[in-house]
Amino acid sequence: MFKFVKSIFGSRNQRLLRQYGRLVTATNALDERMRALPDDAFPTLTAEFRTRLGQGADLDSLLPEAFAAVREAARRTLGMRHFDVQLIGGIALHQGKISEMRTGEGKTLVATLPTYLNALPGLGAHVVTVNDYLATRDAEWMGPVYRFLGMSVGVIRAGQTQDEKRAAYACDITYGTNNEYGFDYLRDNLAFRLEDRVQRGLQFAIVDEVDSILIDEARTPLIISGPADESTELYLKINNLVPRLARATKEEAVEGGVRILAVDGEVFAGNLKPDDVLLNVAGTPVATPADVKAALAGMKSAARVKFELWREARSQAVTVEVPGSMALAELSLETLGDDARYDLRVGGDYWVDEKQKQVHLTEVGHETIERIVKEAGLVREGGSLYDATHIRLMHHLNAALRAHGLYHKDVEYIVRNGEVIIVDEFTGRTMPGRRWSDGLHQAVEAKEGVEVREENQTIASITFQNFFRMYQTLSGMTGTADTEAFEFQQIYGLEVVVIPTHRPMQRQDRSDLVYLTQKDKFEAIVEDIRDCIGRQQPVLVGTTSIETSELLSNALRAQGIAHEVLNAKQHEREAQIVAQAGRPGAVTIATNMAGRGTDIVLGGKPDAMASDADAGSIEAAGAEWQARHQQVLASGGLHIIGTERHESRRIDNQLRGRSGRQGDPGSSRFYLSLEDNLMRIFGDPERMKALLSRVGMKAGEAIESPLLSRQIERAQRKVEAYNFDLRKNLLEYDDVANDQRKVIYGHRNDLMASEDIADTIKDLRQDVIAGLVAQAMPPETVEEHWNLEGLRVTLARDFSVGFDAKAWVDAEKSRGAREMEEFLISAFEQAYAEKEAMLGAAELRRIERTLLLQILDSQWREHLAAMDYMRQGIFLRSYAQKNPKQEYKREAFELFTSMLDRINYDAVSLLARMQVRSEAEVEREEQERQARLERMMQFQHAEAPSITGGSPADEKPAADSASVPFQREVRKIGRNEPCPCGSGRKYKQCHGALQPEEMDAFPNVGRNDPCPCGSGQKYKHCHGSLPE
């Protein structure tokens, strides 16, 4: 029915294209008018558009004229005129959709249309690219178009100063990378003044290579972090232990089931065998013979029944033609106990689950690791690795096992200049500055023998998913978004519009060739490359890892075949290598999507050959390029070779899309083997090898079947669905933190924007005092249950207020909680008014704002750490039959509410304890400080021997200089012991960092807290500083 309706009305994409066609017609009708305008009329035209917007017109009504103006500006400045299909792509981008345009269709030029239109309101328009090179190139390339129209263009890059970034964001149009936009957003929300921020707002954005940024990197959080106070020594110790563990090749386990003792008839003969264990019959799990009988009950005629069973140490499926339930009599069955377990384990201490990216200890491994950690002194004798005190040790062990078992050099990361740099699994690009979390990066550093950096504490964090959803209008463009259309719609609300090509596609996509082994596969690839070189046909070989790139490169080098290699190690040469990959006979090996954003021109990039040349040389170079271009066309265009299938169809399509641009000829083929990761993880290669060998397939032979290719694509769809579920699950958890992030950043913005927050401080003070009184004197309770002594202690400890609450209540029996609250509020406000009189209102307002921002940031950091810890273990709630997601939301809300209460309490406490001194008092304290320093710094040296040879030791010391042994009245507190003040910090980081004379000045002030003197500095940098 759906196909019938679609055949009449057309698909959603076809209807959109028809709708856009009318706008294209209106734009084309303005061509003659735009051609007649002089150059200086175009900035005036922009001003006219802005005036009309101010008078109430909307952007949609200006679209045909604005697009026609941009088209004419591009023709005059760049010599390029937008095709009609490019106008269609621009319309889709303006409407907040994704334009899927094939490689070579001119997406960079397309972006100028909606970018100009959406920059007219003067709120800024952002173009997002995947790297700094493309951001700079596109801004310089398209900049003349915008400037011709009277608009300014800026570029944001890593390493720019605040003023340079602010100037770039102030431009009408800003180009930059996704990382820079995200980090600038986080940095802006750590600023202490509005004028220190660089971004103007998130109004409109076009994301180039939107699938790479919003799909591949969606789970990657942008994190601004600082070092945590933890040693990295344990990572090195655990790393030395991991090589002593043996890796098991595989482990599977099945619990329970029904064993077949005998098969007495012909129905099951050859299908079911004695000692098989039935696990599932006709879709129903079975644990007893009665379960098997119930699963087959009611079958009176022949039916095909699927049996899942455990045979030959693995789970298998067998389908049997069963004539009826009576056939069950042929089987003699035995019930197994609940603790029955069938393991397939090739001896080892741990096994690697490559699907889930996890490492698990085996039963033997648990015993082995407990023994060797005791030998290493990490666990005392008689203790257990699984004691609560050793949770941190298990965390480090798991990180080390993952580093050794799952993360491989030149695949997941590279080592450069003594630093471990992550390689993006989808793009093949390096990601300097990015670090894996949960101690994994430190474990990899320990494995590679480079400096292990300390774990970081998150200061600010956001994922690309949540950052880009904050834009009022978000759009994107890429060549391969349709396979992820559902995810774009579900998560971002972005609809994918497939834009037709300007010229018909001529590329030939050939069926996959499947070999038994990787050795056979690579030999076939080398032979294919040699064949292309013989025809002078350029070849682009796509690999999934640096390791594969270098393996193939070595094979080509051994054959004497010249080639270029592009992977994360040659990232700086990416654009140059790809630009010349279309030369006759050129062979280029590239990792996945390396070089995206740079077109492969058949014959090579002409402008590279014509740089710094005179007119005659340019003409000659152009003629030479034309000859090469025709030679490549005659040879069949660019040939794409895939060394294996990626787990995502989109990545394979991106590789294919490098060939056949703008109607050029081309071809593509993928070479696979049964040892490839996709085949190995999601199939049973050993069983398939045995089957193919039995039917006569020999080494070096290949299977070429469209049916097999479709089977592989079905496996890829399953992986894509699994990855989508992961990203969606992450988003649901991150949405909780995102909502809280918006509240906190909103508070920060309000604080920075407010000139006077005295009323806010007054409200906080009243709320805190009301809470203290309610806690000490609960409503509707008798006086005997009041905790007045606790109120007295709290007021003295946290607010430096000496107030005997019990005596005050006893003085007049009619006094209750309401009177206590009113009295304390009055007393606090009177004391605060005195401080304001001494400091001045303006200075006190500055101190208030600074302290509140510092406290808010400090508490937010602690909250992020608590959220991370909670998230790591929240899945254990499922064992208690609770939904982890709901539990996470509930506890996150409780943590957030508690954090807000602490912010208010700490702010009132610090401001109450803040001491204001006159200049005379400050001068007197400084004199006392200098005197104390002089007493401490008395330099002495031994007296020189006399000429007569006498020693000063022979002289009798004066009686008044006799030394008296010093005896402590109390036990000495160790530097690493908890501080006796009760702060929870180590003594060396609390009162042990102060001089004895200063310890009573500001009780309970942390080293990193704002100094109570009101200077705005941290306590350790002000009154809590050590003498030099």
Walkthrough of the structure:
- The longest helix is centred in the C-terminal third of the chain and has 48 residues, at 706-753.
- Helix 5 crosses helix 9 (132-148).
- Strands 23, 24, 25, 26, 27, 28, 29 and 30 form an 8-stranded mixed beta sheet that branches.
- The radius of gyration is 37 Å and the shape is globular.
- It is 46% helix and 14% strand.
- The chain starts with a helix and ends in a 92-residue tail after the last helix.
- The chain has 35 helices and 30 strands.
Shape: globular
Give the uncertain stretches in residue-range form: 939-966, 994-1001
Helix segment count?
35
Give the DSSP E fraction (strand runs of 2 or more residues): 5-15%
The major pleated sheet works out as: 8 strands, mixed
- Binned, the helix content reads 40-55%
Task: Kindly summarize this structure in a few lines.
By secondary structure, the chain is of the alpha/beta class. The strands form seven sheets. Strands 23, 24, 25, 26, 27, 28, 29 and 30 form an eight-stranded mixed beta sheet that branches. It has a seven-stranded parallel beta sheet with strand order 3-4-2-5-21-1-22, with helices on both faces. Strands 8, 9, 10, 11, 12 and 13 form a six-stranded antiparallel beta sheet that branches.
How are the secondary structure elements laid out?
Layout: H1 2-9, H2 12-28, H3 31-35, H4 41-54, H5 59-77, H6 84-94, E1 98-100, H7 107-110, H8 112-119, E2 125-129, H9 132-148, E3 153-155, H10 162-170, E4 173-177, H11 178-188, E5 204-208, H12 210-216, E6 221-227, H13 233-241, E7 251-255, E8 258-263, E9 277-281, E10 284-285, H14 289-296, E11 303-311, E12 314-322, E13 331-335, E14 341-345, E15 350-353, E16 358-361, H15 363-375, H16 391-405, E17 413-416, E18 419-423, E19 430-431, H17 440-448, E20 456-463, H18 464-468, E21 473-478, H19 485-492, E22 496-498, E23 506-509, E24 513-515, H20 518-534, E25 539-543, H21 546-558, E26 564-566, H22 574-579, E27 587-591, H23 606-609, H24 615-635, E28 638-642, H25 649-656, E29 665-673, H26 677-682, H27 685-694, E30 703-704, H28 706-753, H29 758-776, H30 788-799, H31 805-811, H32 817-839, H33 841-873, H34 884-913, H35 919-936
Parallel strand pairs: 1-21, 1-22, 2-4, 2-5, 3-4, 5-21, 23-29, 24-29, 25-27, 25-28, 26-27, 28-29
Antiparallel strand pairs: 6-20, 7-14, 8-9, 8-13, 9-10, 9-11, 11-12, 15-16, 17-18, 18-19, 24-30
